[in-house]
Write a structure and sequence with these properties.
single chain; 9 helices; 17 strands; about 25% strand
């Protein structure tokens, strides 16, 4: 089995950052005996990924962003070829969670030598995800970011998009059920995450880990929008959970929401009603991960569970802000 034979580059990643990195990546590829392939379309990217699997490459160096990696995961899941992601995107949450260096030369050298390890995947609407899947405002923000924002990237783009979307956003009614509880009522967001970072550095689920067999669930309450804006800066720090996490070996039942957008890796939101199960996938991914990449995982050890969801409460309601009544619709 060849360690790697090609380095793939998505030139559209990072709003053109990928294209600007082409010459540097070409030199690095030549230095390591790799052929640089600049993909021309999504179909071209997926064809190259499948060819790497068919060749039996141990790992596939791929320069792109979180959206690029999301598409590659669909073809790599369940195979023996490991994803070796290089960061040229806007958010680069996946590479940050794996501990990949930001410098491209150091990143490629590290990824070609790093151990190949199992990487958990989630599944929603029949597709695998490595980072998160969410219902609510995140889908609207992601769609605005993808279609309207051109000059900003990463955290700045997400914050700008949120500020543009929030004034006209109507808080949806969400119904979410997980292994040890349920929720029904108005909420800005229900998000199942596999990594601590989303949206280019926001730590909504700081205890999430990509190798513990669990997804972390966060619900953002329907507080007044002014209160949400005051709370929002907290997501750039690692908050302390207000309740202990709960884990179980029972699979998470379906989560449904009328009509809220579903975001998977910054994809265009799907309109509801949406009913689907969001849970760890049986088709695990293999990834090239630096030895110290566990630094982004929780410091405390946690027992693994199969097909489980960990729930966590985030202090989304400031002191003195009344909670809106939530219709339970007959739920216990």
């Amino acid at each position: 089995m060849a360690n790697a034979s090609r380095l793939l580059l998505n030139p559209a990643a990072g709003r053109g950052r990928g294209a600007r990195a082409a010459s540097v990546l070409g030199e690095l590829a030549s230095r390591h005996g790799l052929d640089l392939v600049v993909t021309a379309s999504l179909d071209h990217l997926l064809a190259e990924v499948r060819e790497a699997v068919a060749r039996g490459d141990e790992r596939l160096p791929l320069a792109g962003g979180d959206g690029t990696f999301h598409h590659a995961v669909q073809a790599l899941a369940g195979t023996e070829t490991a994803l070796a992601p290089l960061p040229v995107g806007s958010g680069n949450d996946l590479t940050a969670c794996l501990g990949v260096p930001g410098d491209l030369a150091a990143a490629l050298e590290t990824l070609l030598e790093a151990p190949v390890v199992p990487f958990d995947l989630g599944q929603a609407l029949g597709r695998s995800f490595a980072l998160f899947a969410g219902l609510g405002i995140d889908g609207e923000v992601a769609h605005y970011n993808n279609t309207r924002v051109r000059r900003l990237g990463g955290t700045a783009a997400y914050v700008y998009s949120l500020l543009r979307v929030l004034p006209g956003f109507r808080v949806p009614e969400l119904a979410v059920t997980w292994d040890r509880g349920s929720f029904e009522g108005p909420a800005y967001l229900a998000l199942a995450a596999n990594c601590p970072r989303v949206g280019g550095g926001m730590r909504l689920t700081p205890e999430a880990s990509w190798n513990d067999g669990l997804l972390d669930l966060i619900l953002v309450d329907a507080v007044p929008k002014s209160a949400l804006l005051r709370i929002f800066p907290r997501v750039f720090r690692a908050p302390t959970p207000t309740t202990p996490p709960s884990t179980s070996s029972a699979p998470a039942p379906p989560a449904s929401a009328p009509p809220a957008p579903l975001a998977q890796r910054r994809r265009r939101p799907s309109r509801g009603p949406v009913t689907d199960s969001t849970s760890p996938s049986a088709r695990a991914l293999r990834a090239s991960a630096p030895a110290d990449s566990s630094a982004c995982a929780p410091a405390s050890s946690r027992a693994k569970a199969n097909a489980s969801t960990r729930s966590r409460a985030l202090p989304t309601r400031p002191s003195g802000c009344p909670r809106r009544r939530r219709p339970r619709g007959g739920r216990p």
